[in-house]
Amino acid sequence: MNDEMQEILADFLAESTEMLEALDQHFIDLETDPNNAELLNEIFRVMHSMKGSAGFLGFSHLVEVAHQGESLLNMLRNGVMSVTKPVIDIIFEAIDIIKLIQTDIRDTGADANVDTQAIV
């Protein structure tokens, strides 16, 4: 991997770490205020941004997990589903998988070593 790509990867990892920290806090807030449309929109935007960055870098497993999370969040935003503890638990599980993928990317430069089938 050339220096430019290593720098892009480092930037992605730093940005995605910040996004994951924000998501953790947003979901804690959502549990206490499940009807907060603005908060749901912000969570959706963060997940969408992460998916886009991962796609740009070719991290297809991360894209797939983020896309599924984004789809679930979109159903919440559109009122198709309600914010309930089981739904939040699934999203937390997806975020945990994303964190594992992020570690895989940091360690190997790829996102192929984390099993994503169950969450997808």
Structure description:
With 120 residues, the chain is mainly alpha-helical. Helix content is 78%, strand content 0%. It has helices at residues 3-32, 37-57, 60-77, 85-108. α1 runs antiparallel to α2, α2 (37-57) packs antiparallel against α3 (60-77) and α3 (60-77) packs antiparallel against α4. The longest helix is centred in the N-terminal third of the chain and has 30 residues, at 3-32. The radius of gyration is 14 Å and the shape is elongated.
Short recap of the structure:
The chain has 120 residues and is an all-alpha fold. It is built from 4 helices and no strands.
Task: Kindly report how far apart the N and C termini lie.
Answer: 29 Å
Low-confidence stretches: none
Number of contiguous helices: 4
Radius of gyration, rounded? Answer: 14 Å
Structural class: mainly alpha
The main sheet comes to:
none
Order of helices and strands: HHHH
Please tally the β strands and state the result.
Answer: 0
**Average pLDDT metric:** 93
Portion of residues within helices: over 70%
Strand portion: under 5%
Q: Based on CA inertia axes, which overall geometry fits?
A: elongated
